[in-house]
Amino acid sequence: MLDGIQFSTGCTLGKQNIIHHVSEEVRARFRNRDTGEVIALRLRDEAMDRAIKEMDERDDEAGAAIIEAMSDEELLEEIAAE
Protein backbone atom coordinates (compact mmCIF):
# COMPACT_ATOMS: atom_id res chain seq x y z
CA MET A 1 0.00 0.00 0.00
CA LEU A 2 2.86 2.36 0.83
CA ASP A 3 4.31 2.09 -2.68
CA GLY A 4 0.91 2.85 -4.21
CA ILE A 5 0.43 5.91 -1.99
CA GLN A 6 3.87 7.23 -2.87
CA PHE A 7 3.28 6.64 -6.58
CA SER A 8 -0.19 8.19 -6.71
CA THR A 9 0.42 11.19 -4.43
CA GLY A 10 4.08 12.06 -4.96
CA CYS A 11 4.62 11.86 -1.20
CA THR A 12 7.76 10.00 -0.17
CA LEU A 13 9.50 8.91 2.99
CA GLY A 14 12.53 10.90 1.82
CA LYS A 15 10.55 14.15 1.58
CA GLN A 16 9.16 13.39 5.03
CA ASN A 17 5.61 14.13 3.91
CA ILE A 18 4.55 10.56 4.62
CA ILE A 19 4.77 8.70 7.92
CA HIS A 20 4.88 4.90 8.14
CA HIS A 21 3.81 2.87 11.18
CA VAL A 22 3.91 -0.92 11.48
CA SER A 23 0.48 -2.29 12.35
CA GLU A 24 -1.67 -5.40 12.03
CA GLU A 25 -4.19 -3.35 10.04
CA VAL A 26 -3.51 -1.91 6.59
CA ARG A 27 -4.82 1.65 6.60
CA ALA A 28 -3.92 5.15 5.50
CA ARG A 29 -4.89 8.64 6.61
CA PHE A 30 -4.64 11.63 4.29
CA ARG A 31 -4.78 15.28 5.34
CA ASN A 32 -5.24 18.21 2.99
CA ARG A 33 -2.72 20.78 4.20
CA ASP A 34 -4.73 23.67 2.77
CA THR A 35 -8.12 22.79 4.25
CA GLY A 36 -7.21 20.45 7.12
CA GLU A 37 -9.74 17.93 5.78
CA VAL A 38 -8.85 14.33 6.70
CA ILE A 39 -9.90 11.03 5.17
CA ALA A 40 -8.89 7.60 6.46
CA LEU A 41 -9.07 4.40 4.45
CA ARG A 42 -8.61 0.77 5.43
CA LEU A 43 -7.97 -2.29 3.29
CA ARG A 44 -11.05 -4.50 3.55
CA ASP A 45 -10.48 -7.83 5.30
CA GLU A 46 -12.33 -9.64 2.51
CA ALA A 47 -9.97 -8.21 -0.10
CA MET A 48 -6.89 -9.28 1.82
CA ASP A 49 -8.36 -12.73 2.51
CA ARG A 50 -9.14 -13.31 -1.18
CA ALA A 51 -5.66 -12.23 -2.25
CA ILE A 52 -3.92 -14.37 0.39
CA LYS A 53 -6.02 -17.39 -0.55
CA GLU A 54 -5.09 -16.96 -4.21
CA MET A 55 -1.40 -16.58 -3.32
CA ASP A 56 -1.53 -19.73 -1.17
CA GLU A 57 -3.28 -21.75 -3.88
CA ARG A 58 -1.34 -20.40 -6.86
CA ASP A 59 1.36 -17.72 -6.53
CA ASP A 60 2.04 -14.07 -5.62
CA GLU A 61 1.18 -12.81 -9.10
CA ALA A 62 -2.26 -14.41 -8.90
CA GLY A 63 -2.87 -12.69 -5.56
CA ALA A 64 -1.76 -9.35 -6.98
CA ALA A 65 -4.08 -9.85 -9.96
CA ILE A 66 -7.03 -10.30 -7.58
CA ILE A 67 -6.24 -6.98 -5.87
CA GLU A 68 -5.66 -5.19 -9.17
CA ALA A 69 -9.02 -6.35 -10.54
CA MET A 70 -11.00 -5.05 -7.55
CA SER A 71 -12.83 -1.74 -7.60
CA ASP A 72 -11.96 0.90 -5.02
CA GLU A 73 -15.17 0.03 -3.17
CA GLU A 74 -14.28 -3.67 -3.03
CA LEU A 75 -10.74 -2.94 -1.89
CA LEU A 76 -11.07 -0.06 0.58
CA GLU A 77 -13.46 1.29 3.17
CA GLU A 78 -13.56 4.73 4.73
CA ILE A 79 -13.02 4.70 8.49
CA ALA A 80 -13.21 7.38 11.16
CA ALA A 81 -10.19 9.68 10.97
CA GLU A 82 -8.25 9.82 14.22
Short overview:
Helix 2 (45-57) packs antiparallel against helix 3 (60-69). The chain has helices at 2-9, 45-57, 60-69, 72-75; strands at residues 27-31, 38-43, 76-79. It is built from four helices and three strands, in the order αββαααβ.
For this entry, give a set of tags.
82 residues, 3 strands
Can you lay out the helices and strands and say which pair or pack?
Elements: H1 2-9, E1 27-31, E2 38-43, H2 45-57, H3 60-69, H4 72-75, E3 76-79
Antiparallel strand pairs: 1-2, 2-3
Helix pairs in contact: 2-3
Biggest sheet overview: 3 strands, antiparallel
Round the mean pLDDT to the nearest integer and report it: 92
N to C succession of SSEs: HEEHHHE
Q: How many structural domains can be distinguished in the coordinates?
A: 1
Tell me the distance between the termini: 19 Å
Number of helices: 4
**Strand element count:** 3
Could you list the spans in which at least 5 consecutive residues all have pLDDT below 50? none
What gross morphology would you assign? Answer: globular
What is the beta-strand fraction?
A: 15-25%
What percent of residues adopt helix (DSSP H or I)? Answer: 40-55%
- Computed CA radius of gyration, to the nearest angstrom: 14 Å
Query: In order across it, which strands form the biggest sheet?
Result: 1-2-3
